[in-house]
Structure to design on (317 residues):
């Protein structure tokens, strides 16, 4: 996606999640192919800037705090090559929540990437404080600052603000909720990664553009069925599913085919009335609240509770 802001062209790259592993439902002879597809698309997106003034990675360059060294080197080499080919383009990489360590003493692969790219003039890694260039504001995700605190640290007018924000609060006083009321004091346009499905809306007078991720990474994220598709056994006949992630909706008595060659194959069983035989709802399940309530009941000190929660969040990555 390329947008133009007062004659400034900006190429946007949604969350790449380099280093993400794809194993569930992947045939043994297709292991590693999806990872290669991600890397190839990432490389293409960096190089095809179409004379843009800026190329902005909207956060979550990496899938977790620590990825394999070869993934960090790959990202570094791709950025350096693209930056050398396009010297008039400034490459901006925002830190996302997956890129950061939740423990102050621990570094991350993103920190290593920052150190490697530091000597390159037209690569800017935005990690701890906002970066302002040409009246454009670039805001990183921060493990110890809220999105509001980060935005309120800037008091000059901006043509646009770029960040890695949540669209919804989820009823949890979300510290990463996009602070449109604070943004409205400095800009009329905000562009955000983090949410993996593209969307546009207006809030507090600010136009918000959610870029979506570089690729969809789940069935829920793929609205157009470009990569993730769902079919019944009857519907898969004569379809080219070689480079698709496929969910087969099985009725009672049906089994997954053993000769279907695709990137991923999973099953979803349905009852006779075509409703899912098992429905799991996550909307009302607030794990953190349950954890905090339990700690309070057991008399656990707040500082210990927070430290344990941070460790849990770190382990999830």
């Amino acid at each position: 996606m390329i947008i133009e802001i007062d004659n400034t062209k900006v190429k946007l790259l949604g969350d790449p999640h380099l280093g993400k592993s794809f194993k569930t439902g992947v045939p043994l002879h297709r292991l590693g192919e999806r990872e290669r597809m991600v890397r190839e698309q990432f490389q293409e997106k960096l190089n095809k800037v179409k004379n843009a003034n800026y190329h902005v990675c909207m956060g979550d360059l990496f899938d977790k705090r620590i990825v394999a060294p070869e993934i960090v080197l790959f990202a570094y080499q791709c950025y350096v090559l693209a930056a050398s080919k396009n010297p008039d383009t400034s490459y901006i990489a925002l830190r996302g929540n997956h890129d950061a360590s939740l423990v102050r003493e621990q570094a991350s692969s993103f920190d290593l990437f920052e150190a490697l790219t530091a000597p390159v003039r037209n690569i800017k890694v935005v990690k701890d404080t906002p970066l302002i260039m040409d009246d454009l504001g670039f805001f990183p995700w921060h493990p110890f600052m809220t999105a509001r605190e980060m935005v309120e640290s800037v008091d000059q007018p901006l043509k646009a603000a770029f960040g890695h924000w949540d669209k919804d609060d989820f009823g949890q006083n979300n510290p990463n909720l996009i602070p449109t009321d604070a943004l409205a004091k400095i800009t009329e346009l905000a562009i955000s990664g983090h949410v993996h499905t593209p969307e546009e809306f207006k809030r507090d007078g600010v136009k918000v553009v959610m870029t979506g991720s570089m690729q969809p990474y789940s069935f829920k994220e793929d609205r157009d069925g470009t990569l993730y598709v769902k079919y019944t056994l009857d519907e898969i006949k004569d379809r080219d599913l070689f480079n698709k992630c496929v969910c087969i909706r099985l009725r009672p008595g049906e089994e997954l085919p053993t000769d279907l060659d695709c990137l991923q194959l999973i099953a979803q069983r349905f009852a006779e009335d075509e409703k899912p035989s098992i429905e799991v709802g996550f909307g009302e399940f607030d794990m953190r609240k349950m954890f905090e309530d339990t700690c309070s009941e057991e008399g656990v000190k707040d500082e210990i509770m927070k430290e344990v929660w941070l460790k849990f969040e770190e382990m999830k990555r």
